[in-house]
Design brief:
binds protoporphyrin IX containing FE
Length: 455
């Protein structure tokens, strides 16, 4: 799969019928660009809705109940898993599918692209994730809803996979593909395996489960596949592709990057084979290798490109990679000392909120306005506010979760709701900024139309 951030492909497409005039060809290319931007905005908007309501609001509700009763055991595992599913599949999954479709050059230029399957994919994905969340929370017909949701999600991904695999990546004429492409491919394979595991788990629960929730042991393995098999390598791939340019970093070290992926895959395999404790140390090595490969903490060789976004963008990207290390190290700490789920929870949120969400806030606000019809980001101040609030909330959450759950400091229970409010406000700021960009900022085509009218 190839991801590019160049300006829209409005050149003369190779497959156009020769009878069309150059003006018509340009007009067709512009219409395709507008159509693919609409598709991208649909995936991103539904992802934002999943992030905010079924994801974050349910997460906050769960955390308020846990801190109110001072025990993690008071919340139904089905509700905890509904929150995790909405965030991982509903939010990040929708974003990745949308950006993936946008990045297929044929959807923007070239021969007439087929938008029908892409919209069908969006509908199946959105319905599948919604059904899963509703089955976990309301339990209505969950023995039917669970497998149907798993089938819809897997089928949607296969439509996407078919579209992407028909496209030869940029530079495929070269002898060797860019290393970041291998990283993204490994993450895409992780995504596919996750969806297959998810469907198998849904069928198993429908036939044998007493509730729509996975057992603790199965859930832990499933989450490792989700976080280390899918989310983390996707972010590495995107970082290797763009951070050299955006942050002005020195060139990526390809050998180290591919070693990070290989070590990471071995950690996932170890976990799935039941060696989860040993795998946590392997993930620390993989995280360290990825940092050395992308050279995120090394002095930049060129000025960062922050036009259109907040100037703190490079700082927060580095903060995110700091959270990656913290999350991986806390995983080792959890295998040694966790007696309550608190260190595991802290590790998971250092990775999902600290690393993944902070990176999505940074990269998303940098690239998505341009993808959505060459718009400007609505507010760079709101971008800073969202990132700062999320980082403060994550720091409070990770530290107080360990102190409270492990029984080290009773006062830490009262910090947890505060952390949730910081994170919720930060996440709302990000969603508002993205929706403000889509709804209030004019696209390139709209700006051109205004210029023509003024003339
Ligand atoms: C306001 C923000 C959030 C709050 C208050 C929150 C709250 C929670 C709580 C209370 C749990 C239960 C386990 C524990 O005690 O740690 C949990 C689990 C989880 N969260 Fe979050 N969360 C938030 C944001 C996120 C984000 C942004 C992601 C992903 C991008 C995420 C992914 C997960 C996952 C995967 C689980 C594990 C679910 C399972 O047990 O299967 N959370 N969250």
């Amino acid at each position: 799969m190839s991801i590019s951030i160049e300006a829209p492909a409005v050149g003369v497409p190779s497959g156009e019928r020769p009878s069309l005039s150059p003006a018509q060809i340009m007009q067709n290319a512009r219409e395709r660009e507008a159509s693919v931007s609409r598709l991208l905005m649909a995936f991103i908007s539904s992802g934002l809705v999943f992030m905010l309501l079924p994801g974050t609001f349910l997460g906050v509700w769960n955390l308020l109940r846990i801190s109110g009763s001072e025990s993690a055991g008071t919340v139904s595992p089905a509700w905890l898993q509904a929150h995790g599913h909405a965030q991982v599949f509903g939010w990040i999954g929708s974003f990745i599918l949308g950006i993936g479709f946008y990045s297929i050059p044929k959807m923007r230029g070239g021969v007439k692209p087929a938008f029908g399957p892409a919209w069908f994919c969006w509908a199946m994905w959105t319905i599948g994730v919604t059904m899963r969340w509703a089955a976990n929370v309301y339990r209505w017909q969950w023995r039917v809803m669970l497998p149907v949701s798993g089938i819809l999600e897997l089928a949607a991904f296969l439509i996407f996979f078919r579209a992407v695999s028909r496209h030869r990546p940029e530079g495929s004429g070269k002898k060797q593909l860019d290393p970041w492409i291998y990283v993204v491919v490994s993450a895409a394979v992780g995504f596919l395996l996750l969806l297959i595991a998810n469907l198998a788990a849904c069928v198993y629960l429908a036939l044998r489960g007493a509730t729509p929730a996975l057992s603790h042991v199965l859930d832990q393995r499933f989450l490792t596949l989700a976080v280390w098999g899918f989310l983390v390598p996707f972010v590495w791939g995107f970082s290797a592709r763009w951070m050299t340019v955006f942050l002005g970093l020195k060139p990526v070290r390809p050998g180290l990057l591919l070693s990070a992926v290989a070590v990471n895959v071995s950690g996932v395999v170890l976990t799935l084979a039941g060696w989860g404790a040993q795998a946590t140390a392997v993930f620390v090595v993989a995280a360290a290798l990825s940092i050395a490969a992308i050279r995120i903490f090394e002095p930049a060789q060129q000025e960062a490109k922050t036009r259109g976004v907040h100037g703190s963008f490079p700082f927060f990207v580095r903060v995110a990679y700091g959270w990656l290390l913290v999350g991986a190290l806390l995983g080792v700490g959890a295998t040694l000392w966790d007696s309550s789920g608190g260190i595991w929870g802290a590790s998971r949120h250092a990775l999902t909120v600290g690393f993944i969400a902070v990176m999505v806030f940074c990269v998303g606000q940098r690239i998505l306005p341009a993808f959505a019809g060459m718009r400007q980001l609505w507010s760079s101040e709101l971008m800073f506010a969202g990132l700062a609030l999320l980082t403060i909330g994550c720091t409070l959450r990770v530290s107080s979760e360990i102190l409270a759950y492990q029984g080290i400091a009773g006062w830490a229970w009262s910090v947890l709701p505060l952390s949730a409010m910081f994170e919720l406000t930060g996440i709302t700021a990000f969603a508002t900024n993205m929706l403000g960009t889509f709804l209030l900022e004019p696209s390139h085509a709209q700006k051109q139309a205004i210029v023509v009218e003024l003339r």
